[in-house]
Write a structure and sequence with these properties.
181 residues, alpha/beta, Rossmann fold, four-stranded parallel beta sheet, 4 strands, iron-sulfur, NADH_UbQ_OxRdtase-like_20kDa
């Protein structure tokens, strides 16, 4: 019985930290196209993203927790988007907003990346062209629930190792055939 209680007490600070992190998610914006207008509308008084602690849209990735990729990602912007993602402090999350960010949308050509998940790991996909601000608020609430369950410390390192092992087992992008192949 003492072992169970000591494990519960050891997990208590982690749960408090997860709860605090989930209440103030600061986004860094990658407003690349028309979905960015809907993302900006989310901060307006009608939708009021401030009630969820996310009103501070950061221009510096070092102060952000979540990247909101809204709009089509060109190959030229893909390297910049990856640099911004790499500069964000851990733990970090990504929300792909709109059909173009999630799958390239109607732009199936050489200039557009067919999904931002080819550049950064995506946690939540928002469908639509463009998705409504209410959908972005719902995604932030889903991300908040995910953060509350997210492990920290050595538990997080173990989860990362398992995720990396699963990613190495997955098929490479070179093996996957696109629509134009």
């Amino acid at each position: 019985m003492m072992d169970q209680d000591s494990d519960g007490l050891a997990a208590f600070p982690e749960k408090i930290t997860d709860f605090a992190r989930s209440l103030s998610i600061w986004p860094v914006t990658m407003g690349l196209a028309c979905c960015a207008i809907e993302m900006m509308a989310t901060a307006a008084s009608r939708f009021d993203i401030a009630r969820f602690g996310s009103e501070v849209f950061r221009s510096s990735p070092r102060h952000a927790d979540v990247m909101l990729v809204s709009g089509r990602v060109s190959h030229k912007m893909a390297t910049i988007m990856r640099n911004v993602y790499d500069e964000m402090a851990d733990p970090k999350w990504v929300i792909s907003m709109g059909a173009c960010a999630s799958s390239g949308g109607v732009f199936n050509n050489y200039a557009i990346v067919q999904g931002c998940d080819h550049v950064v790991p995506v946690d939540i996909y928002l469908p639509g062209c463009p998705p409504r601000p209410e959908m972005l608020l719902g995604a932030l609430l889903s991300l908040r629930d995910h953060i509350k369950q997210d492990p920290l410390g050595k538990h997080r390192e173990e989860a990362i190792r398992k995720a990396e092992a699963a990613a190495l087992q997955a098929a490479s992008l070179n093996d996957m055939k696109g629509l134009m192949a």
